[in-house]
Design goal:
Layout lengths: L10 H11 L7 H9 L7 H13 L4 E3 L7 E3 L6 E5 L5 E4 L7 H9 L9 E4 L2 H4 L6
Parallel strand pairs: 3-5
Antiparallel strand pairs: 1-2, 3-4
Length: 135
């Protein structure tokens, strides 16, 4: 099931992946650990960290490193954009499409073979901006 054939999907890895895919909150490793402990009470924080790294390297999840804050993880491995609140550190999916086709524009203007990209918008979420409570 893992995208790299030489790695097997252990029970711990599967549960971490299942728990991460249940939420759209982009949790930190510590938050994933708390979620997983409900199903695997004896799992260690180090095991969760190691498996999150493996899952991100194999393309099963995304590892987000917004600004200088802690790493967050996204159960959606598909290429998509994020918005990061600079006040409360909340990270949400930006529901927009890549209409500019940036990969092809850069390939044609710079000659690079683009294999992917990360684009993060920064700002204030509605709650921090005083507009409305977070969704």
């Amino acid at each position: 099931m893992l995208k790299k054939p030489n790695l097997r999907m252990t029970r711990q890895r599967m549960i971490i992946l299942e728990e991460l895919r249940k939420v759209d909150t982009h949790p930190s490793a510590d938050e994933v650990y708390e979620m997983v402990r409900k199903r695997l009470p004896r799992i260690s924080l180090g095991t969760v960290y190691r498996n999150l790294e493996i899952l991100s390297k194999t393309g099963e999840i995304q590892k987000l490193e917004p600004g200088s804050t802690l790493k967050r993880f996204d159960g959606n491995p598909d290429e998509h954009y994020h918005i990061h609140c600079i006040q409360c550190d909340r990270v949400v999916d930006a529901h927009i499409t890549n209409e500019l086709n940036l990969d092809n524009v850069l390939k044609q203007t710079c000659g690079f073979k683009i294999i992917g990209h990360n684009l993060e918008f920064i700002g204030l979420c509605p709650a921090c901006a005083g507009d409305s409570p977070p969704a």
